Amino acid sequence: MDSNNDLEKLIDNLPFFLQHQLNNHIYKNQLIEIVLDLGRRPEARFVYGPEYLSQKIISWQDIDYITKRISKFSNENRAGIERTLHRISCIRNRQFLIVGLTCRVGRAIFGTISAIRDLLESEKSILILGKPGVGKTTIIREIGRVLADEMEKRVIIIDTSNEIAGDSDIPHSGIGRARRMQVPKTELQHQIMIEAVENHMPQVIIIDEIGTDLEVLAARTIAEKGVQLVGTTHGNCLENLIKNPPLADLIGGIQYVTLSDEEAKRRGTQKSILERKAYPAFEIVIEINSPNSWTIHEDVESSVDLLLRNNYLMRQIRQFTSVEIIKIKCDRSQHYSNLIFKNQKRSTDSLIQRRNTWSYNNEIKSRKIFQPPLNNLVIYSYSISNNLLKEAFSKIGIKFILTNNVRKASLIIGLKKSLKNNFELKRLAKTKNIPIYSFNQLSIYQLTKLINSFV
Question: Which GO terms describe its molecular function (predicted)?
């Protein structure tokens, strides 16, 4: 993973005795935040734990030195540094004077969402759950970049506290080509969400920290208009949302239902039970258990129904140590099945049934009939991003040529729903004996599996 954090710009705004200590620290790149409280020793929090930076205590002059070098604090008591992702939050006393600062390091980490790229390509709305500080904002920042740059979608980021795209009118490069709408006041976030849909025709809207009834209602409204949502909220797991009344509507809402005597007896339950009352605004939920372990609920509707009935639910646990090695566990009734992706080349077996697979006939054809000339591979892509093809082939190390002339192609790759009605293309391919490989919904994993079958 490649990280861009502009750490020097944060350190340069600290008092000189702290600058020297941090610049020479061997674990500087693992810094999470710096805590400066009046009358206390400065403390740095690293990935491995906290550590004091100096024996000198923080004075009024130290706090004043920092606050004069950063932007003004908002109503949320947050400020930033121009053209960076760092966030400085303040603690005030009863006279509204600043007596403490929390300087959090903002990072744009490229490649951090490779484990869920197949979920992004499903075009379903995704909700990310996690405790404060676990990295939700970093994840959705990278999601915005991937959707805008690599999947070429129209992406709008609703940036309430300028934490996603930085404290500047010019967005940070970490969000790529995605556009950012700033929110003047926190309580107006729901209005900006609706305005984004009505005025700017986005395909994807990204929201950080959904927390109020109005924001939940706005999210449901956007989802009903056919726009893909990617949002975050605080919580440990899906069960937390069910028990949180303001947020429960994100996953369909909960209501009490009274059953008849016969139905209650058939189900073996009480007459008054909890049931989901509507369709979820978010179809996929990702629980960020730790930076390297995520729990995936690919069918929120079914997961919520099973939880309300006290049944076991199907979920995935995706663990990764790098972009190249991803481990997936399929958890059901305390039964685990391990699946490992190495270099993103190996495909899953029958324990995880993916909807996004090409047809069985094409798989057999690629193995037994078609062996393309790998030294002179010419591909005609139909409704597929060229960037995705380039990324998949580069991982395998196979060179190829993209063509706009189907007559010169040695292989046609496309989406099944688009190819289905193009009878002329299929007729021409049959005449020229050009094989067609169709996918229901394409991801890089299926592409690499297809390519590997050629080798």
Answer: ATP binding
Last residue of a domain, one of 309, 342, 375: 342
Rounded Cα gap, residues 385 and 1, in angstroms: 23
Q: Cα 449 from chain centroid?
A: 24
- Interhelix angle 386-396/444-454, nearest 10 degrees: 50
β-pairing, 78-80 vs 155-159, is unpaired
Q: What is the H or E stretch that residue 453 is in?
A: helix 444-454
| Same-domain pairing of 191 and 311 | yes
Q: What is the mean pLDDT of the chain?
A: 82
CB-CB neighbours of 277 under 10 Å: 13
Q: What is the reported pLDDT for 312?
A: 65
Q: What is the pLDDT of residue 344?
A: 37
Domain endpoint, select from 71, 104, 137: 104
Give φ, ψ of 315 to 5 degrees: -150, 160
> Distance (Å, rounded) from C-alpha 56 to C-alpha 41?
6
Q: Are residues 35 and 7 in the same domain?
A: yes
Q: Are residues 400 and 430 in the same domain?
A: yes
Segments forming the whole domain that contains residue 266: 110-342
Are 121 and 151 in contact by the 8 Å Cβ rule? The answer is yes
pLDDT digits (tens, 9 = 90+) for 38-54: 999 999 999 888 999 99
Rounded CA-CA distance 284/126 in Å is 5
Tokens standing for 403?
């063509």
pLDDT, position 64 = 95
pLDDT in tens, 188-216: 999 999 999 999 999 999 999 898 999 99
